[in-house]
Design brief:
Radius of gyration: 22 Å
CATH superfamily: Endonuclease/exonuclease/phosphatase
CATH topology: Deoxyribonuclease I, Chain A
Number of helices: 8
Number of strands: 13
Helix content: 10-25%
Strand content: 15-25%
Shape: globular
Strand order of the largest sheet: 3-4-2-1-13-12
CATH class: Alpha Beta
Distance between the termini: 35 Å
Order of helices and strands: HEHHEHEEEEEHEEHEHHEEE
Largest sheet: 6 strands, mixed
Length: 392
């Protein structure tokens, strides 16, 4: 008997270890409305066409962990609760329902009144006077859905981190007066870096912990010569590059006043609509390039045939672009600048092996192109980006 036991033990020892896989995704789903509670009203009953299209895309791709950008936040979680129960957990066009037992969402800076005049129009009550542009608190919010347990007690959020507290911050200057700040000292004492929020959400995946670093920086447009949004976008992205760098992260503090960045050797995936193309469109490209070229980050370059086709059919607005069209994740209205861009990212740490990465952007001849048609867009002007990862 002992001889057989030893034999079985040796046999098991030489068997290959089964790979542990996870599919993770980001999707700016455009489930945002112009008034507080509007999304809840639209989703209630399970028949909203946009909600059904977004849910079907998710059911077809079936990510294990997904960040939804531009999903209006409400304090009671009613919006995401309705979307889960009446859309994701109900079959769309014959697809298998999708259940996410674990959810993380939280307040964001969009629409959160600052009480100060941030756009220089002499008023303090406009959408541009909120800590992040928004007509009501929670507009353009975020939510992370997961099949795996979320360590909520270990989540770090950085909603209140002040922009001025970033060393070397690209704070805007008044045009023509390079030594004079665009924002007054009183404003800078209150102005937050994150236009929505930055989250570090640890998730237990097959006995390991992966940190999902989620954000949605402001678009680098809708400003003036001072380039306040372009500079803020750059620094919101740079925040993650510093967070991953031991000798640069000491200045960072979270909403619980804990300092420092992500420990070395930790697994992570950066998710979000970062509103920055590395080569084309508006914005300071150095911000996104610092992240794509970070020594701890691998750029998996998800692609699609639909994006390449769309660039050819858009009336020529993409002809001057430098970046590969197949990497685009955002569709600009046909013929309008800046054209299609790569804005949405899934960026895993280098310890995670990438098996496959794609953008859900079907070609027009594909029957599934009905889910991405527009404008007006059936689902969103952004495309879901996903990657299959293997844990070591």
């Amino acid at each position: 008997m002992r001889k057989w036991t030893v034999f079985l033990w040796l046999f098991a020892a030489v068997l290959p270890v089964r790979a542990q896989m996870i599919r993770t995704a980001t999707f700016n789903c455009s489930l945002t409305r112009s008034k507080a509670g509007g999304l809840i009203e639209d989703l209630r009953g399970g028949q909203n066409p946009q909600g059904k299209a977004v849910a079907e895309i998710l059911q077809r791709v079936r990510p294990d962990v997904v960040l939804l950008n531009e999903f209006d936040w409400d304090a009671e979680g009613r919006g995401i609760g309705i979307f889960q129960k009446e859309y994701l957990e109900i079959s769309q066009s014959g697809q298998e329902p999708l259940v996410y037992p674990f959810v993380f969402t939280g307040p964001v800076n969009t629409g959160l009144a600052s009480g100060i005049d941030l756009d220089g129009d002499g008023r303090t009550d406009g959408p541009e006077d909120a800590f992040g542009y928004g007509r009501f608190e929670g507009q353009y919010g975020m939510v992370l859905l997961s099949r795996f347990p979320i360590r909520k007690e270990a989540v770090r959020t950085f909603q209140t981190f002040l922009w001025k507290d970033m060393p070397g911050a690209l704070l805007p200057k008044k045009p023509g007066a390079e030594k004079e700040m665009w924002y007054s000292p009183e404003v800078l004492e209150r102005l937050r870096l994150s236009s929505k929020s930055h989250w570090d959400v640890p998730v237990e995946v097959h006995g390991r912990v992966i940190h999902f670093l989620a954000s949605h920086p402001t678009p680098p447009v809708f400003d003036g010569a001072e380039d306040r949004n372009g500079r803020r976008n750059h620094d919101e992205i740079r925040f993650w590059a510093d967070y991953l760098t031991k000798d640069k992260s000491g200045y960072i503090y979270d909403d619980a006043s804990r300092r420092g960045g992500l420990e070395e050797g930790a697994f992570f995936v950066i998710l979000g609509d970062l509103n920055a193309d590395p080569q084309d469109g508006d914005g300071l490209h150095e911000g996104i390039l610092s992240l794509l070229h970070h020594p701890r980050v691998q750029d998996v370059r998800p692609a699609s045939k639909g994006a390449a086709e769309a660039a050819r059919l858009d009336g020529g607005v993409n002809e001057g672009h430098k970046g590969p069209a197949e990497l685009d994740t955002y569709q600009s209205p046909p013929g309008r600048q800046p054209g299609n861009l790569r804005l949405d990212y899934v960026l895993p740490s280098k310890e995670l092996k990438v098996i496959k990465a794609e953008v859900f952007w079907p070609e027009r001849a594909d029957p599934l192109s009905r889910l991405t048609a527009g404008p007006p867009y059936v689902s969103s002007d952004h495309r879901l980006v996903w990657a299959d990862l293997e844990l070591p």
